[in-house]
Amino acid sequence: MKTRKLGVLLSCLPVGVTICPVAAHASILDEWAAESFGESLADTLASAQDAARSKGRMQAEISQARRAFQAAKPNTPAYRQSGQKFAELLFGKDLYYLGLFVAEGVNDKSAKRVTAIEAITGGPLDGGIDPSAGYAFLQWVDGVRASLGQPVNGRLLFVPSGERLISAMRANRSRYEAYRILRDKKEFGLGVAGANPGNAPSVHGSSALQASEIVNIGRNMVSGSGGGPGFRLSPQEKSRFDAEASALMSSGQKILRCVYNTGQNKSVTYEFWLDKAPRQATTLPAISPYASIRWMGTAALDKCPVDADTALSVRQKMMGITR
To answer: HSE on the CB side for 203, CA within 13 Å?
Structure first.
C-alpha cells in the first residue's frame, strides 16, 4: 500500500500501558483530525482504494506494521515512526470497509454481501471491524450516507466519487473519531481498567438533549440471524435465533430514544433499553456474535443522559468497553 502520513501520533501508547494520559490522547486526536481530514484526505482515499485492489499486500503490510510497532521501544524515534505507519494503515483499513458498506449501510443484508465478497478475496481484511467498535462504525457509515443524501439504512445509495464523498467524510469526522477511539482501545488496550469517562476527550463537543421518546423495539435490532463476516449460523442456531427474536418482538419491550443537538443543525441519537433489559439482550448475542442487539448492552435507563458525550460513555459501559 502506498502510504501517506496521517498524523496519528502514538507516543503515549507504550506496549503494556492500559491508560493513555488524557492530555496526550486529546492532542493525538487534534493532530490526527487536522491532518488526515485536511488536504491529504483525497490522496489517502485514493491510496486506500488502490490498496483494496491488492488485498493480500495490504493485509501483509498491516501485520508487519503491527509487529514493528509492538516491538519498538517506547519514546524513541522508531516507536513514533512505526506508530504513525501503523495508524495510517488502520485508517486505510477503515476506508476499505467504508467502501464495502456505504452503498447500503451496515445491516444484515449488507453483512451477507460483504461476507460473500470477502470469502472469495482471502477473508476479512485484518480480521474485519472489531465488534466492540462495530456500533460506532455503523454510525459513521450512516452519517456519511446521510451526508450523501440517503439517511435510511438499507436503502441503496449511488456512491459518488471525488469531492462529494470526501466532503461527506469530513462532515462526519466526529463520528469517525468516536469509532476510532473505540478501535484504538481494542487495538492498544487503552483506557479500560480505571478509566474516567468524565474526563475523557469530548467526541461530540458541546451538546444538549433535544428530544426523548419511548418507542417499540424495531426489527433492525434483532437482525443477525445470517451471522456476519467470517461467521455463519447452522440451521439449528438460526432456528433458535429466530425464535428468540420473535419472542422479543412480541414482548412489548420499549426503547428510550435520546436525540442530542450538537450544533450547526446537526444531531446524534442514542437508544437504550427502558427500565429493564430483556433476557434476549444476552441470549441472542450468545447464539450469534453479530446480532445487532449486542450494541444495546445488558443494562437499562429510565431517563436520557444529560448530553451526547455522557450518552456515549453510558453506551460504552453497557457494552463492557469501559467500567
So the answer is: 26
CA angle, corner 169, sides to 8 and 124, nearest 5? 70
List the grid coordinates of 291: 446480532
User: Is 11 within 8 Å of 3 (Cβ atoms)?
Assistant: no
Residues with Cβ within 8 Å of residue 229, at least 6 apart in sequence: 111, 114, 115, 118, 124, 128, 129, 290
Q: What is the pTM of this model?
A: 0.52
Distance of CA 310 to the CA centre of its chain: 18
Contact 32, 26 (CB under 8 A): no
Say how far apart CA 282 and CA 249 lie, in whole Å.
15
- Cell numbers for 275: 427500565
Successive 10-residue mean pLDDT values, the chain, 323 residues: 32 25 31 47 57 75 87 77 84 90 88 84 85 86 92 85 83 86 69 37 78 87 57 79 91 92 85 90 81 80 89 77 52
